[in-house]
Design a protein that fits this description.
Blueprint (H helix, E strand, L loop, with lengths): L4 E2 L6 E2 L3 E3 L8 E2 L2 E2 L7 H13 L4 E3 L8 H9 L8 E6 L1 E4 L4 E5 L3 H15 L4 E6 L10 H12 L3 E7 L3 H8 L4 E7 L7 H10 L2 E5 L34 E2 L2 E2 L1 H14 L6 H12 L3 E3 L6 H9 L8 H10 L7
Parallel strand pairs: 3-6, 6-7, 7-10, 10-11, 11-12, 12-13, 13-16
Antiparallel strand pairs: 1-2, 4-5, 8-9, 14-15
């Protein structure tokens, strides 16, 4: 099945599936709390990126802080000579020590946004960023206008083509939506964890709804059981940050595992794997959605890209899922 997506009102055409590049950044920390996904093999990352390109993926989402710059550097090398074939999204706000792989602070002051943009351009080995995203979920909406205006200025200067906010809150999304070159809101969204208010904002303002956590940090791959324990340098491990809801005390959250089992039969119908069914739910959820599952291996890329062959779930399947989870249309 062939279907495309646009990067919101920017008009930039992209693949309906993106690749989330958090995990390929490798380990990094903030005050001893792991924020990466454990050790990575850079050679395998390169092979996986190439495989994604071969399978028609054009959209890659990263952040300056992933692996404290390492993810951006990997993409910069992987896209050498191919820049015109890809759409790159990255994010700003974190301040970090690249050598120590340690996050040391955050800032969205205009000068710091500009400096972060220049640093990302260098690491990505490019002279423009397609989508530049504010990486502070809970920054006060009433203080966000100067951030938006700094991003508008970067568009005028040709440093970025469009911008967005990675936030799960509709009032914050609405502030950025007023900006002429805002193209996307990145939100936590998956079949277990809907967010109707922010999806509604994206539909109202013709913004791409980029879906982080589309596989619920791995729970929707079907590879995790109640006893699975991620490594100590994994963001899902026993020292996970407070905001981690899918894993608790270093193990999958039983509440979410139970929901996965309730939905397993319908998500794996028509020959799909569990993760392919989870991606299909997102495409059916709204015409604005663009899932960005993470990856570390060629195999993961191939399975996720395999979902494109099936396309979105049918309306009746979507309705059945709502009933199984006892949700109404407003979540």
């Amino acid at each position: 099945m062939t279907f495309t997506r646009k990067l919101g009102r920017s008009g930039i055409e992209i693949s309906p599936l993106g690749m989330g590049c958090w995990a390929i950044g490798g380990p990094f920390w903030a005050e001893g709390t792991p924020l990466g996904w454990g050790e990575v093999d850079d050679d395998e990352s390169f092979r996986a990126i190439q495989r994604a390109l071969d399978l028609g993926i054009t959209f890659f989402d990263t952040a300056n802080v992933y692996g404290t710059g390492h993810s951006e550097r990997i993409l910069g090398k992987a896209f050498a000579g191919k820049r015109q074939d890809v759409v790159i999204a990255t994010k700003f706000n974190a301040i970090f020590d690249e050598e120590r792989r340690e996050v040391t602070g955050a800032s969205c002051a205009p000068d710091d946004i500009r400096n972060a943009c220049e640093d990302s351009l260098k690491r990505l080995d490019t002279d423009y960023i397609d989508l530049y995203q504010f990486h502070d979920n809970g920054y006060p909406a009433e203080q966000a206008e100067p951030v938006r205006e700094t991003l508008e200025a970067l568009v005028k200067e040709g440093k970025i083509r469009s911008y967005g906010w990675s936030t799960d809150f509709p009032d914050r999304a609405e502030v950025f939506a007023q900006g002429k070159h805002c193209a996307a809101i990145q939100l936590q969204l998956n079949v277990l964890d809907d967010n109707p208010p922010v999806v509604e904002i994206c539909e109202k303002y013709d913004l791409a709804a980029i879906n982080r956590g589309p596989l619920a940090m791995g729970l929707l791959t079907g590879k995790y059981t109640a006893s699975t324990q991620p490594s100590s340098d994994d963001v899902r491990g026993e020292k996970s940050p407070e905001w981690m809801q899918y894993f608790k005390d270093g193990k999958p959250n039983p509440e979410f595992l139970e929901k996965v089992e309730v939905l397993r039969e319908i998500l794996t119908s028509n020959g799909r794997t569990l993760s392919q069914g989870a991606l299909a739910w997102l495409w059916a959820r709204s015409e604005k959605t663009i899932p960005i599952p993470g990856f570390r291996t060629v195999e993961q890329v191939e399975e996720n890209c395999g979902a494109l062959e099936y396309g979105p779930l049918a309306d009746e399947q979507m309705e059945e899922i709502q009933m199984l989870l006892h949700r109404n249309k407003n979540g």
